[in-house]
Amino acid sequence: MQRPPTQPDAAPRPAVFLDRDGVLNVDTGYAHRADQIAWVPGAPEAVARMNAAGFRVFVVTNQAGIARGLYGCDDVEDLHRWMAQELRERGARIDDWRYSPHHPLHQPERFADKADWRKPAPGMLLDLMAAWPVDRTASFMIGDRQTDMEAAAAAGIDGYLFEAGNLDTFVADILRRRAGR
Fold first, then answer.
1. Is 21 known to be catalytic?
2. I need a labelling partner for 139 at 20 to 30 A (CA). Which of 48, 82, 125, 148 fits?
């Protein structure tokens, strides 16, 4: 459900928390293999832009397909390793990943310890903030659902709803607006 951090430095930095399906990759429903991934237009460029702007970049994703028995935790972790490598090859970096296998209607007892990680709960975001030195006041989340916005609010950060289009254009606009604050 979590990966060890990749050598976080001690200085707090702002972070961007990204939902996965519908933000980084096209949401095809329960994607868990590399052949099911199509990048949202501008996604690698958006991650590289956030890296260059000094943000830590984290992915926080509900993965109910695990509780539904459609795939396992190893499948999600393998996919995240593949996605990270694909992004690295495009000059972009995800600093850390979190996913919640919990679903209240499917095997809720199996993943009860991760119930507070399932968005709209803020558990994944808070866990990353505890694992990494994050400047919460300058951090934000990008998601494609209202539950992402609720998780951001519960974690005490701004949320931006990405509904469609080019993610890099969307991120550039957010960074421009935030710089003007």
1. yes
2. 82
